[in-house]
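Notes taken during the Thursday session

The instructor put the following on the board and asked us to keep it in front of us for the whole hour. The protein is VOC family protein. We were told not to look anything up and to reason only from what is written here. First, the residues (137 in total):
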Amino acid sequence: MEYVLDHVGIAVRSIDDALPFYINVLNGVLEDRYTSDTSGVEVYVAVVRTNDKVIELLAPTNKNSPMARFIKQRGKGVHHIAYRVDDLDKAVLEASKSGVRFLEDTLRTNTRGRRLIYVNPVSTDGTLIELCDYSNI
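Then, after some discussion, the predicted structure tokens were revealed:
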């Protein structure tokens, strides 16, 4: 299985406050901006491309969202690193056979058609890793 860096998710309190750095300083391009109201997600997302790399700025939609809890516990900054795979189901199966644990309740297709699941940070020595594929796009 090949794992390719897809994007880095960054927790911010306000996308409007964070965007100028990524656009004006890093010369990024705002590719997309949307809201995910899915229960257990509840996040505003801004997708910024800098050359061939993608950054997702993630801001909570309300004070009880998982992103709000993340920021309260760990502060702003890197939330997760995402790796693209050709076949998400196969990647999960292969990793599971190696003892990798997943946060099963995070398996979903986002509002833009990307299938994803998060690896339990217990399996990664504390880093939240997203595996994703684009088979539905």
